[in-house]
Design a protein that fits this description.
With 594 residues, the protein is α+β, with helices and mostly antiparallel strands. Helices cover 59% and strands 9% of the residues. A five-stranded antiparallel β-sheet has the order 3-2-4-1-5. The radius of gyration is 26 Å and the shape is elongated. Keywords: Membrane, Repeat, Transmembrane, Transmembrane helix, Transport. It comes from Roseofilum halophilum BLCC-M91.
Amino acid sequence: MPIILTLTVVVLGLISFITEWLPADITALSITVALMLLGLVTPEEGISGFSNPATVTVMAMFILSAGITKTGVIQVVRNWILRWAGDHPSQQIFVMGSIVGPISGFINNTAIVAIFLPIIEEWSKRKKISPSKLLIPLSYSTILGGLLTLIGTSTNILASGVSAQLGYGEFSVFQFTQLGLMVFIIGLTYLSLIAPKLLPNHLENNLMTEDYNLKDYVSEVVITPRSSLIGKTLQKTRIQRKFDLDVLEIIRDKQRFSQPLADKVLNAGDILVIRSSREELLKIRESKGLEILADIKFQEKSIEKAIASGEEKIAEVLILSNSRLIGTTLKELRFRQRYNATVLAIRRGSELVQGRLGKIPLRFGDLLLIQGPKQSFVGLQTTRELLVLEQKNVDVLRRKKAGIALGITTGVIMLAAFNIVPILVSALTGVVLMIMTGCLKPGEVYGSVRWDVIFLLAGLLPLGIAMNKSGATQWLAENLISLGGHLSGYWILLFFFIITSLLTEILSNNASVILMLPIAVEVAKTLDLNPYAFMYAVVFAASNSFMTPIGYQTNAMVYSPGGYKFFDFTKVGAPLSLLMMFAVPLLITFIYGL
């Protein structure tokens, strides 16, 4: 019965992960609650994930990555890319991958992508190439680079914790670096030589107003002398609610007034620059006192001219994975009032969301086209909710602290690498030093942690305990052996790599490790094979997530900025996944033996 109950919880959890009934971290927490209610784990075991060294280490590494980011250490490499990348796609990808990959071995790869997204976009504009030619390679390079060290990804750290639970001890910082380096070289070679032929060429013009089809639904209406709006403030007219539109600007005698506009009194002859659907424009046409200026369309040149001449600005903003904006609408957020800026358009992958923007629930990876005063974007650059896709102002970064942050991070790695102290202790020491030296402000610490990942890890770790206690792990291992025990060690290793890779694409890399690593070790023990070889196969397979934009966080981050379609990732990523599927088990067999 314990086995049946445990596997039932596992199956229900998998269904929730796949269907996305709940966010992944809430699903993981629900699994823990179910295990405790069914008596499969004790309350102490149920909350043990929050005190597990792997969970705390991952949290500390997020904070250390923020210290590196806030001090602008990585911005230094921008000049290297511009200097050496050249004009050939293969050279561009090779130079970019050679830089971001090794960095990802020591700093969280989602932070790397967040930093390099605006750099690559700006570089693409200079070179007059589409960002879609570079952003998928950017994501894949960071995924491959994360396999170079233990601290490259949260998955590696989690696997180290599971290994300790199973009695094999924690991994050292460079335990699988030899394998990771070979895999990275193979992956980068593919990305440089083959991927350029498969990558799409979206957003060729790369002009914001053309990319978002603003001409279709940003227009100008004039207030006629007979209008009932004359003498009233914009807020009191309530036209933004009545017509489901946003007033972006008011033009009066060639003078432009931008946000905030709520208290601006309207006069006859005022021109309102509005964002609305075509249907709403037709309603305005029928409204007394408002007329559409058919001959004064909101053209790309006029918006660029208006922005260049005044304090107005237009930019793309990405919704991050830890953003509290996810699941809410612009109307619920009172976005315009909160950020003093207006959302002109939303891009979701290759899909352009138009019309009733205020009523569309926002998702991770959505790209917002925002217009507002330049000062508003300074505030947006410092928020934890959004990422402005442009170079950060130097004033925002603590450049004088860059050397200190780099020294602290290097010290953390060295202390753990030479086994002077455990990685948990060195990482927490680094966190304290980041704050004491001013690399991070105390208020920035909590915002730098990906709490969804922390709750996901803490929620999933008790599942591994329940699988072992109930005997489910041993039962599954015995059945797998009965089916394929006659096969050679290589083919069994390949089987675990394939299954883990598939689970990673539909679940998450962390969930895949929790489920598959104990089973793989049990099979290896029973067949008298090398358990470390099987652990490495599961760890590397858990990061073999290249075929969809939803399997890995960095893929989702580049999905909308690149204007990609879902199957663009499959087209480029499937050959890479197949290459890894056969190369990694062979390399493991060659390096570590079976």
